Amino acid sequence: MTLDYYIYEIRELLPGDWLDVTNKHITRWINLQRSLWLKNEINQGRYIDDKIKQTIIVDTILVNASEIAGIKANSVLLKSSKEIPYTIILKTTDTITSIHNADILGESYNYVTKEDAVYSGNGKMNTRDIFSFRYNKNIYIKCQKANPKIKLINKLVIEGVFEDPIEVARDFNSTGDFNELKMEYPISDALWNYMKEQIINNGLISIQAENVEEKQGRS
To answer: Which segments of the chain have a pLDDT < 70?
Structure first.
């Protein structure tokens, strides 16, 4: 479903004197509640539904191994050409679910922490493995210089559950003029039913207060 569908459902449940609440404020609360509910659900071990995932395709650029402290000079380091939006952060990890080569179907890369990446691939048994990790706002790819596959990694496909799905759709998946109201909003029907009730019961006061402050600021 598109974002405007969910906004319309919230408007249908609003009291009659709340009709001047802006789409901006409703959208903000939909995003906030989505992040909160997904974080709780995934932390409890719930399955990550494909409906809530988004995909980013990004070019890679070759950088000096010294860009990351601790990476040895015999390693090759690639970096995403664009910063990657924040994912939902869990207790022990984030919600990037897959990083793979855009040109070689089925080949995914080990996703590790930046700290683990420093030592990954340095042993005798994993010298041909390719590792991916996030550092600051970029995704990096690390492997040994002797690995011939490094020349084939020109684009990355990054799948995950992102904190602001609108940012992902606007900055990575839009063509031409972007209309956020018409974007496919990544949420499951079951989760929306829970969220909708919380937005109405707990979000209305905050939405109304933000709306009043915005109007006073323009006057």
So the answer is: 17-19, 105-106, 122-127, 203-219
Q: Which segments of 44-188 does DSSP mark as H helices, in order?
A: 114-117, 165-172
Q: What pTM, to 2 d.p., does this model score?
A: 0.86
Yes or no: say if 142 and 133 are a contact pair by the CB < 8 Å rule: yes
Spatial separation of the C-alpha atoms in residues 209 and 185, rounded to whole Å: 25
Beta bridge partners of 54: 160
Report pLDDT for 127: 67
- Give the containing element (helix H, strand E) for 9: helix 3-13
Bridge partners (DSSP) listed for residue 189? none
List the structure tokens of 166.
């609108």
Instruction: Give, for 71, the enclosing helix (H) or strand (E).
Output: none
Domains annotated for the chain, with CATH where assigned, are 3-49+176-207 (no CATH), 54-160 (2.40.30)
Q: What are phi and psi for residue 78, nearest 5 degrees?
A: -110, 155
Q: How far is CA 46 from CA 49, 53, 95, 161, in A?
A: 9, 14, 13, 13
User: Which H or E run contains 159?
Assistant: strand 155-160
Answer whether 124's CB lies under 8 Å from 183's CB. no
Element (H, E) at 125: none
The pair of three-digit structure tokens given for residue 13, joined into one six-digit string: 């449940």
